[in-house]
Amino acid sequence: MEHVDRCVVLVDAGYLLGAAASLLAGEPARARITVDHAALVRQLRECAEADTRLPLLRIYWFDGAPGRSPQPEHRRLRVLPRVTVRLGALTRSDGRWAQKGVDAAMHTELTELSRNRACSDIVLVTGDGDLLPGLMSAKEHGVAVHLWAVQAADGDYNQSEDLVAEADERRVLDRAWITRAIRAKELGGSCAPPPVPRPEIAAILSAPLPESGLSSAERAAAPADAAPAPPPGRTGTGTRGRARAPVRAEAASRSPHANRNRSTRGSAAATPTGRRTGKGPPESR
């Protein structure tokens, strides 16, 4: 029985999306990316048919799910043409999620396709070295195996070295290819939150300011280079007598009676007896 001239794509979704998240968001968490699954499937089909020069039979999408129950993304995928979804378990251990049974399901499908001569070329999108026996079995049945990798974030390999060595053809899905269907999510807020001061600094900042002679409105209206007002009872010279002298002079200039009385007292103080001299005008009787 001869092989049918068509290709099949086997996708390890945990590898594809985790490596894409590492490349685009800096960490393998799939929650950090958004995926256009229809566009991604279309790209996989076009690329597989171009590389193998054969029509596509089917894309198998292998992924983990809690309780093996289809998630919304799996429901979207399995209604697309030429797509079959195979689910393994998804368990949490030591704070991390891990797929269980996905590599075994991929191994079984890879072996059955090659043994039944359902296709002549198989494209593997994975990095798991556990698929090495299935890959070697497919080659023994005359199937050409194409191994695709997602561009590694650190520029190194993110696949099993033995898997890479045994593949017939290799291809790297680079950033430009990935970003056509996968995007990194925007973080909520571009500015970092302001630092919280230490308790002792917060106590200093919240303490009331000392009172001053000027109100806050007066301080705001005063020019920046103006000298501060002196305390009550002092002037800029620091001498009490000088501070009051202008006041007496001003008061004297306002009161003519005070000037006349002061001049009269000065004339009386000129004679020891206090009597008037003949130089003044005669008194009227």
UniProtKB/TrEMBL annotation:
Species of provenance? Streptomyces laurentii
Query: Which residue windows are transmembrane per the record?
Result: none
The record places domain NYN at 35-169
Q: Which Pfam families match?
A: NYN
Q: What is this protein called?
A: NYN domain-containing protein
UniProt region (Disordered), positions on chain: 214-285
Q: What GO annotations for molecular function exist for this entry?
A: RNA nuclease activity
